[in-house]
Here is the input.
Amino acid sequence: MSRSVLSRMILGLGLLLGAGALHAQEADVHIVIRDHKFEPAEITVPAGKKLKLVIDNQDATAEEFESYELNREKVVPAKSLVTIFVGPLKPGRYPFFGDFNKETAKGALIAN
Here is the structure.
């Protein structure tokens, strides 16, 4: 095997491993909407990592996930899942709320 072919194989392997490392730095966060409330209402998440929020609306009506601090808003249809990507976040508190049920649907991500 020539040195050139071996170098390309090593480079390819490095790229594959690097892509896996990037994917491993993403954290999944699961939030349920039930009875017009977020469960859990507060979630501690790792600072400095990209987050994949998976929101499961178990209610019979739609809700809108909204956060000024996260700069995100997305309607979550009734009995549906949506995914929202945020971050990486600096340490701090990031409130969110349900725009259709502001009195009860409140929560926060706490990045440490």
Remarks:
- Residues 7 and 53 are 39 Å apart (CA to CA).
- The two ends are 49 Å apart (CA to CA).
